[in-house]
């Protein structure tokens, strides 16, 4: 059964780097069952590519990771090292944001002209890392729309039940959305 | 004597087959009590004799595959015959899928809707269901049909008076007789404007349609010849499945058959749940999409519908121990427009991603139906608390919900390390439809499916997306032959049909480009007019969230250019081949147009005359990753290949500096590129603010509800659903009972 097979770290590196060839891609796509130990090989490859030492628990985006800090601390970290804080709080709230609200502003990122979204009904939001300026996310949403918390993983269940390797600092409140703690602080600071 | 007579009667009662209603109740009870389909906790047939078991299933599967590959050549419509816009399946007596052909896979999950409706309404009691009957279905509410252009034939397979299976055939009609001609009735206000909408109704017996049924096609649709042949096609396939199933039961015996059909569904349910567990990361994945519906000024006959609407599509996916929960709470309410769904119809859309992701290595059965829990709140656009809503353009917005949930699967697989499966999911399809009358008075109706058959696939997390290869609703993307569509729409000829350069979402990896065609009207006879029922025609990208810093694919658009000097351009040998070329030729004053209109949402019926042009663009897809991380060599290659025609645009997008050599080829300036990228990163920081500051600036506007009326109405509706209300009020730190005032857009 293919789930017992292992994919080499080199092949995982090629996937991460975007250098994998079509034949190998097709071979992976056609696996009847995915190789079970891929995740830990993936973590190994990712870990060797980041300039910091914290243990990667999960990759959220191309350059965005949930990492284990001190015991009981799990934060979101940019590849550049910028720390966005507790992963239960939407990391986008720690970004810098540029919005495109006018037709001219939107036309800088959509082409041709008739394909540009409609001002007033929609706006484009770009979320940047405050340190390295990586564009980590784009939203094209109605004005006033809450910043979307794209993914909140249940890490304890993932590691314990899906991977069979429980995390050392399991706790009942890890799988909770704490984003409103941040907006609550902002409300206190409102002019 | 009396005692003996009573015993005979009692015995006859015992032998009388159970009603459909009783069978469905028993299935529901056993499944709910045990967590296994129909209470099947052990796969005894499979485990005791796997070869026999697989041989049994292979014969079932072969029957539906053969039905498709033979019967579709009965059809005359390009959609079914050439493009494969069809499907055949076999289901249990309760309507649960056992096997399906290639084609419209996700329709499998809505078979039970019709059967439950027939059972609840005692079709099998009064006046009975017999072997080889033919039932027609095209209603969203009672049949789960995603839009009335899709038409179903159900044929019961009975043994000794008991329904033991259903053979089912489906295809997308060329025309279904609505006020707006075509197969997706734009501007429908309610179900009575959706065209030929059939709740389950018997139209034939003994595998033969009754004579009156032909009259329905001839009098109530505008493409009778094709629709009648499509009807024969569906029935021909069902007849093949009917014969094969009887033979199968004869060979294996009824006891084996009745047990085996339960086991194959339970077996695939287990496999699907295991697939979900072995490829996903548990948690909550959120996404959103929007759709602009501009009816204001175009619906003045139906005053209650004469308004604009911003539809909010909200979807979350939560993998759990039983599979996944798909939650649409927070989405808009239903409205007086054609974009409403029904629970069956939205199932048909959202199971595209589920089946494609989790049924790839097992039998495609109702097993996946049991692994996906759904929440479509009552009153929402996915479960209207009004039985008369129009569902004609359901597909246009439910596909966005599918994209959100399918996209969530991609995110999970990316995080899990199965990068080869991670790509940007879009559903930016297009089509056009209409009707005409030739010079000799012959009427015809049509749908051109080409941009439904093949669209760009979104970027992978490791390479660019590809053109034309993606159609979430079918495994076999094909746009069909241009000549086929020219033959079905006599006055329209293709001047061009090609990929549209630059038309995709940008990122480290770009999406597959969308498509564009130029249709030229020649000798329209007495009349020809068309509309566009477009999935992506909504002034917005089809999904609201880009992947990993990339931009979602741009929305669709179309252009009508009426009153042109095309005859002169033809003499000069230069005609536009796509939307971009058309607009450039107008800007360059080569192409003269008396009436030029660019449509980013539904257009009213457009009547065309000689040399008028209809130009469309659809099927774009989104990118993946930060555009400044794109390999500069790939940017230059796109410039030289013509994939990106606008140097200034891509230079700003990707921070790439190139110059043209004497031959006109672009050549990278690596040092200038490095500097440009540094400058653009600095500009990002200079032109942005902390989200905290943005929040402080935006919040008063939210408190004051200072938005255009359509946005206000959208929030007024979505905030009536508790889950989104909590999110909204929590994010903006508003009172727990914060609400937007209900209003109409014309206030």
Q: What does the model show?
A:
The complex is a heterodimer of chains A (191) and B (747). In chain A, β3 and β4 (83-86) form a beta hairpin. Chain A has six helices and eight strands. The model of chain A has no long low-confidence stretch (mean pLDDT 96). Chain A has helices at residues 9-17, 22-29, 38-47, 103-106, 155-162, 179-189, and strands spanning 55-61, 64-68, 74-78, 83-86, 96-100, 123-128, 135-141, 151-153. Chain A is an alpha+beta fold. In chain A, α1 crosses α3 (38-47). In chain A, strands 1-2-3-4 form a four-stranded antiparallel beta sheet. Chain B has 747 residues and is α+β, with helices and mostly antiparallel strands. Chain B contains 24 helices and 23 strands. The longest helix of chain B is centred in the N-terminal third of the chain and has 29 residues, at 224-252. The termini of chain B are far apart. Chains A and B meet through α1, α2, α3, β1 and β5 of A and α11, β8, α14, α18 and α20 of B.
Oligomer: heterodimer
Envelope shape of chain A: globular
Strand portion of chain A, in percent? 15-25%
Q: Strand order of the main beta sheet of chain A, please? A: 1-2-3-4
From N to C, what is the helix and strand string of chain A? HHHEEEEEHEEEHH
Measured on Cα atoms, how large is the radius of gyration of chain A?
20 Å
> Which strand order does the major sheet of chain B show?
2-1-5-4-3-6-7
Helical amount among residues of chain A, as a percent range?
A: 25-40%
Give the mean pLDDT of chain B.
Answer: 94
Could you give a quick summary of the protein structure above?
Chain A is of the alpha+beta class and about 190 residues long. Chain A is about 25% helix and about 20% strand.
